[in-house]
Each structure stands twice: as C-alpha cells, then as structure tokens.
C-alpha cells in the first residue's frame, strides 16, 4: 500500500480548502481592522467590540464557503462529460481549486467593502476621504 500519495477518498483536499478559507477570512478581518484603524472610522470602543465578534464569523464563514465551493467543484467534475473525466488529474483538480479561490476571495472582498470601509462614517484621523477607503488601497480594486 502506497501512502505517499493521497487517494481519491482522501480528506486532505477538503482540509486544505477549509484551511485556505480560514486563512483568507483571517486576512480579510485584518484588512478590515487596518482600514478602520487607519481612517479612525468605526474604531471606537463599540467598533472594536464588533470587530471581535466578526473574527470568528469571518474565519468560519470563509472556511464554510471554501468547503462548499470544493464540494460544488468536485460534483461538477464528477458529472462532467467523459472527455473531462479522462483528463489528467491536474486538470480535474483545477476546477474545484479555482472555485475555492474565487469564492473565498470574492467573499473577502465583499467583507472588506462592507465592514472595513464605512462609507460616510465620520472618521477622526483626517487621512481618508469620505468613503473611508485608505489612500494605500489600489485604485484598480473597487470597494
């Protein structure tokens, strides 16, 4: 029995997608905290209290979305036409992986846009415009 390669029934891809989702959720939460602290918008005592409750929701939600995206990708590949099912393993793994990345990054982007940049909230730092988007945020990524 060769245990060096995960088999088709391995839980390694599932755990990897959940861990990737949790890491993206943590990174999104850090971006939200950074944006709020830099612009001083929603970073008072109540805002920091809210951010503490958003951490487990962001990490758990992203992990759950990653697992659902992996499951949807696996289902799409298993029900694909015969030409795809005979494709190399790397091609069959690419679709679920792509779905996990797109779903988790999309959710993190939405989380940052809605919770990190509180549009119109009066910020006290004077470093950010009315939209409360930090000036370091790239212009090519809309929020």
What does it look like?
By secondary structure, this protein is mostly helical. Helices cover 66% and strands 0% of the residues. The protein contains four helices and no strands. It has helices at residues 12-39, 45-78, 82-85, 89-116. α1 runs antiparallel to α2, α1 packs parallel to α4 and α2 (45-78) runs antiparallel to α4. The chain is elongated and about 60 Å long.
Q: Nearest-angstrom radius of gyration?
A: 19 Å
How would a textbook summarize the main sheet? none
Helical residues, percent: 55-70%
Q: Could you name the ranges where pLDDT drops below 50 across 5 or more consecutive residues? A: none
Structural class: mainly alpha
**How far apart are the first and last residues' alpha carbons, in Å?**
51 Å
Tell me the strand percentage band.
under 5%
Shape: elongated
H/I helix tally: 4
Nearest-integer average pLDDT: 87
Q: Give the SSE order as H and E letters.
A: HHHH
How many strands? 0
Write the layout of secondary structure elements.
Blueprint: H1 12-39, H2 45-78, H3 82-85, H4 89-116
Helix pairs in contact: 1-2, 1-4, 2-4
Keywords:
143 residues; mainly alpha; 0% strand; elongated
Compact summary:
By secondary structure, the protein is an all-alpha fold. The protein is built from four helices and no strands.
